[in-house]
Amino acid sequence: MTEIRLTNTRTRTKEPFAPIDPDDVRMYVCGPTVYDRAHLGNARPAVVFDVLYRLLRHVYGAGHVKYVRNITDVEDKIIDRARANGEAIEDLTRRTTGWYHADMDALGVLRPNEEPHATDYVAQMIAMIEALIARGCAYAAEGHVLFSVASFPDYGALSGRSVEDMIAGARVEVAPYKRDPMDFVLWKPSAADEPGWESPWGRGRPGWHIECSAMSEALLGASFDIHGGGADLMFPHHENEVAQSCCAHPEGSFARFWLHNEMLLVEGRKMSKSLGNFFTVRDLLEGRTEFGPVTGEEIRLAFLLSHYRAPMDLNATRVETARAVRAEICEALGKRGSAALAARAPGAPIEAVVARLADDLDTPGALAELRGWLGLKRKQMTGEVLDRIVASLDLLGLDLRGAASTGDYARLYDAEPGAHADPALAACEARLAELRAAAKQSGDFAEADALKAGLVAAGVEVRILPAGPFLIRQATHDPAAVARLAATERA
RNA sequence: GGCGAGUUGGCGGAGUGGUUACGCAGCGGAUUGCAAAUCCGUGUACAGGGGUUCGAUUCCCCUACUCGCCUCCA
User: Fold this and answer.
1) What are the DSSP calls for A86-105, one per residue?
2) Residue A340 CB closer than 7 angstroms to strand B?
3) In sequence order, what are the beta bridge partners of A206?
4) Which tens digits make up the pLDDT trace of A323-375?
5) How far does the CA of A58 sit from the C1' of B20, in Å?
6) Which CATH number is correct for A5-261, 3.40.50.620, 2.30.30.40, 3.90.226.10, 3.30.420.10?
7) Hey, where are the domains in chain A?
8) Could you read off the pLDDT of A152-204 as tens digits, one per residue?
């Protein structure tokens, strides 16, 4: 069996991964707070841990992996946004959850096995808070319940910082009801116009951290294999989760492996609204950024081109590289022709690709290995090789068999290619062949060149082979522009 | 102030104690009506300073710079 090695934040080292139960590998990842469109930074952990999920499924079997990613649907940002929009909280969270799903689907991110909503687990949170109070790890004060950091000697171990350092250097919220400035909220009172649940401490709502402790325990147990999230969650969120879960369930180990993905940068700077380099996944997909339209596969590739533990800088070069790799994959998949493309089924993935992924999720390395295979000559691109490429692409979450350009490349490699699948492009292709034939007689290529330029501008690759012109739709191709060209040429 | 990551050729980005990936761009050639695509060939690098070593870009230390986290944040 493939040995997976992962960098464990707990130990700061790369360790061999062995699940508690190979028949039930369990992973928890912190999901989105649903109050707005997912920004690009939200997408990074979704993609990173999707690759890990796919790898775990490959190694342990699809039925033996349980992946839980929560939806935080109670939080002050949500309350504020709903109030600002003048809408009900439920309407806001339902809509934004739908957006999140649509955007992650576009990136080829598989749905987790469970996607618990915080508001469905308030009873479990209250029970856990009661247990913490009973064990002397938490205390109620003025309608709040606070976790007592002093009760957990290992506090700070995960993020590698001491309580003294934090008090000295960081701004810590001082509140009169706190016994210790580092104590954090498990439960807080709700005003009449805020969402709330009845509890032993009055009507209120949970603090941010308790939901992950309660939901991971409910769905994965007191001990599970992997907990993931963005590096910025390491402190305080994950540190607090560890404190809550380990104190509530001293018999369990909570998460054995902690994985953190590094942050996203845009042109070398942190993405932020004030810098004007902030954008959502949807902005990118719909071309509302300086990068023009970027497909879901290209965004995914842009992520995979960086190692998850390195900051990823999104810039024009990165987007271009992602586009080039996507085109490379599409052409490679078409090298055996249309019939083969339709028939291809995944086989066993390329060992070198699996090995790279198993080595701490080395996606840039895996892509490098894969690209070696993509570049094979047509003669070497046998059915078996293609099967292995397809299987490897599946592991990376990049099935491009259905892409328009893949089909167009396949036709290019057909022994007897028929007309172009797209009628407007078929017309343009025939017209271009006609114009070129006439131009070769007259020596005036102006018309042929104008059509060619129009096609390129519409996102269509023009390849002129001895057999004649071939038109290939690229990811960015604009069907409306092509239709206009076809109509003009007919007239 | 505390913690962490990083600094590789024009750009992006791997990697290794000795023989210097790869991609893009560039340059030369083949091909082309011209291009594109394709094919062949080709150059430049390891932030600075010490140390360990027969030998360091690769290990250790220091310095500089960059970035992130420490507050809601993926």
Assistant:
1) TS-HHHHHHHHHHHHHHHHH
2) no
3) A187
4) 888 888 888 888 888 888 887 677 888 888 888 888 888 888 888 788 878 87
5) 36
6) 3.40.50.620
7) 5-261, 265-411, 419-490
8) 988 888 887 777 766 654 455 567 788 888 889 999 999 999 999 999 999 99
